[in-house]
Amino acid sequence: MGSSMMPNTEFDLYIKSNVTVLKSRAIDLLLSKLRDKNTNCAEFTFYGDRLMRILAEESLAHIPAVRGGEVITPCGSLTGLVDYRDKIICVVSIQRSGDILQEAVRTILPGVGIGKILIQRDESSPEKNPVYYYKNFPKNISDCYVILADPMLATGGSVKVAISVLIEAGVSESNIMFINLICCPEGLRSLKDAYPNVKVVTCCIDKCLNEHKYIVPGLGDYGDRYYGTG
Q1: Does the keyword Transferase apply (predicted)?
Q2: Which of 9, 92, 130, 224 could form a disulfide bond with 115, CB atoms 3.0-4.6 angstroms apart?
Q3: Do residues 207 and 4 make contact, with C-beta atoms less than 8 angstroms apart?
C-alpha cells in the first residue's frame, strides 16, 4: 500500500475486519507479469487465467460455509477447515472482465449458480460514472451467498451499482463477497461508506487513482489487455 493510505482508525479497522489481501510468492510473480506493459495479449491471458484460478480458490475458502471442524484422516483426526455448504452459492460477474474471474470460479465449482450484471464506465464523463444496462440472475438469488466478481476496484462506482442491484433483488448485504485482483484506497473507502458489510477478497491494494481514474501502478484496462481490444 502506498502513501495515500494515511492512518485512519475507522478505515484501518474496516480493512482489518472486511478486506482480505491474499499473500503468496506465486501471486506476486503473476501480478508482476500482468503489470508489465510489454506482456503481450497471449501471455497476459495465460498469466491472468493462472492468477484468476488462485483467487477463485482462495475466495471459495473464505465463504462463511467454510469453518473449523474435525477432519478424520486414515491415521487419526485433526481440526481443519471444513466446507459445510449450508449456503447456496452464486457467482455474479460485472461484465465483461468479471466474466473471466467468474469462469475461474465455475471451473472449480461446477454447477455453481451464475448471474450477470452489465455496467460500463462512461469514459466521456470526468468522474467515469458507471452506467447500468441489465441484470440476469437465477430465480433463487435472494437465497444465495453471492460472490461478486470484477478484476479491478478503482473508483468503486461499478461495484456499488452492482451491489445495489443485488440488494434490490433480495440479497442481503452481509451475503455478498466482492473478489478482485487489484483495488485502491479510494475504491475501498467508497465501498466502505456505502456498503460496510460487504466482504472483499483481493490480491493487492495499490497506491492510488490517477487523474483519469485508473489505478496506479495498476495494469491498465484488464479486459482490453486480456481480449486484445486495447
Answers
A1: yes
A2: 92
A3: yes
Calculate helix-pair angle for 41-61, 25-35, nearest 10 degrees: 150
Question: Ramachandran region of residue 220, left (φ > 0), alpha (ψ -120 to 50) or beta?
Answer: left
Q: What is d(CA 75, CA 135) in angstroms, rounded to the nearest whole number?
A: 49
Output the CA torsion 29→34→38→39 (10° steps): 90
Take residue 79 and report the three cell numbers written for it: 481440526
CB neighbour class for 157 (10 Å; exposed up to 12, middle 13-18, buried from 19): buried
Q: CA dihedral in degrees (73, 75, 78, 83; nearest 10)?
A: 0
